[in-house]
# Entry
Amino acid sequence: MKKTVLRNMKVNVLAVSSALAASALALMHEVAGFRAPVAPAREAVKGFLWLEAENFQDNGGWRVDTQFTHKMGSAYLLAAGVLKPLDAAKTTVDLPSAGVWRAWARTKDWLPEWHPGRFRLSVGGKAGPVLGASGKDGWRWEKAGEWNLPAGAAEVVMEDLTGAFARCDAIVFTKDLSYAPPDGAEACEAERVRLTGFDGSVKDSGAFDLVVVGAGPGGMGAAIAAARHGARVALVHDRPVMGGNASCELGVPTDGAACSHLNAREGGICEEVNLRRALTAERTLSSAFREMAEELPNLKVFANQRVMSAEKSGEKIASVTARDTLTGARSRWRGTYFADCTGDGWVGVFAGAKRMYGREARSEYNEAPAPEVRDDLTMSGCLMGGYLGYKQQRMGSEPVPYSTPEWARVLPPGFTRNTDSPWSQWWVEHGGRFDDLADPERARDELVRINLAYWGWLKNEWKGKDRIKCNGLVEMAHMNGRREGYRLVGDYILTANDCLEGRMFDDRISYGGWPLDTHDPLGMENPTGNGYWKHHPPVPIYTIPFRCLYSTNVPNLFVAGRSISVTHIALGSTRVESTILTLGQAVGTAAAHMLGKGLMPREYGRDPANIRALQQMLLKDDQHIPGVVNEDPEDLARGAKASATSTCTVRKVTKNDVRRNMAGGKNQFHPLNMPRMAGFLRGAMESLGAFECLLGSSEKEPVEVVAHVYSGAVPPTGRSPSMESLALKKVGEARGTATPGWKKWVRFVPTAPIMLDGPYVWVQLRTAKGVKWFMTDHGLEAMAHRGWGDSKWSLIPNIRYVVVPEAGFKFLVDAKPEYVTDGVSRQQGDATHCWTSDPEQAFPQTLTLEFPRPVSACEVRLTFDSDLNPLHPVGNPLPPALVKTYAVEGFDGTSWTTIAEVARNDRRHRVHSFEPRVLKAVRLRVDATWGDPSARVFEVRVQAARR
# Structure
C-alpha cells in the first residue's frame, strides 16, 4: 500500500503541475492586485510621521504579506524574489517642516547569521544604510538614515538589494534625534496608535445566527449550507479570496475518497463548486465560491479580517473580534453559534476549548501506525502560490547556472529523491520541529530555504539535471499551505482504527476514504525519505460522526476542517479538502436546523430523531452518507410511477468516447519502465480481437511493444504464483510499434480472437524503453496495475490506462426509470441507481413521474450524473455524462406547463422551487448533455407543499 499511495499522490502533484499556467492566470485575475489602500502618513504627533509600508503608492515587485498579523501586529511588504533584486517600492510623504529628519524602519533579519534579505531606503534621491542585517532575532527597529529635507513632498524609495525575502513593516520619520521606537510587539502597537492617531475602537458588525470564521472548504460548506437553510450567516476570513488551501492563492485540488474508491467523489456543495468553476471566467474554486456566496442575501462575507479574540458569556462564545489585515481596524461579530473553520483551531483556543496537538502515543488510542511515544511534531505545510514552491522555466538556449546560497544549504548529507519532475513537490517540507502555530513566519521562512536548496539539488545533482540546464527560477511562492494545527476535542475522537475498520456510526454525517496520509515528521531533513511517516494499510470507506464536529466544553462552538476531533493519525485521512467541505456542509445544515429548537450542538446530537432529520436533510442536498437512503415522507416522488421514452440496455464505449474525454486536458502517463497492466470488465464481450492503446514515445526510432492478454477473475494485488500460467493459458500475444512522437494510438492484433470466460479482461504491456502509457477518465470501471517482476503486482488506485477494443467496449446495463425514486443517488457497486436513456435514440428524451392521485407540490429536485468515479470532475469543460439542457414540466390533468428551463447546466444537483400547484405528473425533458449520447439521471424528488 505504501507504494500504491505514493504513486497515486505523485499523479495528484502532476495534475497540479500541469495546471500551472491556468493557476497563474487565475491568480493574476483574482489576487495579483491584492494590496492595502494607499494612505498618506500624517503628523498626529508633532515632529513624527508614521508610514505603513503596505500603504505605499507603488509596491513595485514587493508583495503585501498578511499571513502573520496575529503574531507581529500588521501587514508588511515582502521582497519574495528568486535571488535577484525586485523592482523598488515607492511612495511620497508630505513633510510638515524643513530640517533634519531621521527614519526608523521596522524590519526583520530573518536569518541573523546570514542576513539574506537586505534593502535600503532612499529619500529625496539619497540612499540610507543597508537594512535587514541587524543580526538580531525577531522584528526590530533599525536606523534607516538621516536627511536634511525641505518641507513638502519627498519621494521615499524602498530598494530591494538581494531578492531574498527582505521585509519592512513600517517607517517612522522623526525630527527628535533622541527618539527610538520600541521593539516589543505590545509596545510597538501602542506606539503605532499614538503616532498615527489610530482609532482603536471596535466596530459592531452585527448579530448573526451563525458566525463562521475561516473561508476554507469547511467554512464555505458551513456558511453556504446554513444560509441556504435560512440562517443569517457571517463569514469572517483573513484572505482576499475564498477557498483556503483550495483557493486560487494556494491551488490545492479538492482531493477525497475517490482517490482509491469507485464512485466515491463527494457530492453536495463540494461537487457543485467543482462543477460550477468550469463555467466561471477564472475557472477557479475561489470564483465559484464567490458566485455561490453572492447568490445568498442572508450570507454576509467579511474578507481580510483576522479574528484575534473570542468574548464569552458564561461558557458560551458571545462574540469574536477581528482586525482588518490591511487597515488594522477592529470589528466584532455577535452570534448564536460559532464555527471554527480556521484549520488551526484558533477560535477554540481563544474560547478555552479543550484541544489536542502533535502526535499521540500508540498506547493512547491503540493505533498501530502511531509513534511509540507522544511528541509535539506536526505535519509541515508547503509553499504555495497557485503553484508549488517555485516557478521555473526555460530561459533560452544557453545553460543557466545556479549555486545554492550558503544560507539556504539545509539539505542533509546524502540527500536524494526519486523524482522525475523538476517542480517543487508536496513533500518539500520542513521538519516538524518548526512550529506553524507558535512561529508561523519562521516555519514559512524555512520552507523558502528548503525550496531554494532543493532547486540547487535538481540543477546540480539530480539524474535529470541535463533536462533543466537552461532553466531558471522565475518566481517564489510566499504563502504557507498548512496541514496541521490544533484539533478541538469533541464528544468523540475519531481514531485510525475507526478509519481502518470502516466504522458506520449511528450519527454519521459524512464519510472519508483518503489514505492515512501522515507525512514524514523529518520532512526534507530525512536524506532518503519519500514524504510519508510509514507504511499504512488501505483505508476503506468509513464514516465521520456528528460528535466530532463540536467542542466538548464550549457549548455553542462547531468545528469543521482539519481541526475536528480526531487523532493525529486519523487526521492524515480527514484533512483533505473534499472531506472537509462535506463536514462544513453538515455543520451549516445542523446549525440552521437547531435554531428553531433552541438547542446547543451536544443536546441536538444526543437525540436520535434530530440526527435522522439531519441525515435526511443532507441527503436531500446531495451529500452522500453511506448506508443512509431517502426516507423523506414529504418526497411525493417516492409514491410515483416512473416511465421514460427509452432505456439503455447495452452501453458501448469506443475510441471516440475516449478521445472526447481526453480533450478535457488529461495528459498524464506512466512510463513503461516496468510491466504495466490495465483491467476492465468484459461486459457483453465474448471474445477480444484487435485493440488499441494510447502510447507515447521519446525515442528517435520506433520501439516494439509486446502485449499479453488474458481473462481472469479478481486481479492479483500481491504475489500470485498462478498468474504466469494463467497468462499462458489465455495468452493473446501481440506486437505493436510506438512510433516517435508524443501521443499515438498503437494497434495490437492477436493471432486469433481471444475467448473470454472470466469477468475481467487484462491487457499487460511489457517493459519498453522510452514508451509511455497514457491515462484517462473515460468512466470505465477499469483498474491499473504495475508490475514488480513477473509475479508481483500492485494496484494503482484511481488510474486507468487507455486501452480500447477495436470493436469498442460493450456492457449490459440495468438503468430503469424507476431507479430515480429508489432512495440512492449514486452508483453503488454493480447497482446503477440511475435512469439512462438509450444512446441510439436521439434527444430529446423524457422521464415522467405519474402520481396515483393529484398532489400539491412546490419543488422539484434533480440529481444528474456527473461521473463521480474520477478524483476530480473531468470534461471539456464539464463531464460528458452531465445533462446540459433540460426542462421540467408539470401536468395538472389538462395540460403540460413549463416549471423550469435550463440551457447551460453546470450542476449535478438542481433545485427548482415554485408556487404551490396541484399536479398529476412531472416530466423531465432532456435536450442535450455535455457529450454523452444518453440522458443520465440518478434522482428526482418532488416536494410536497406545506399546508
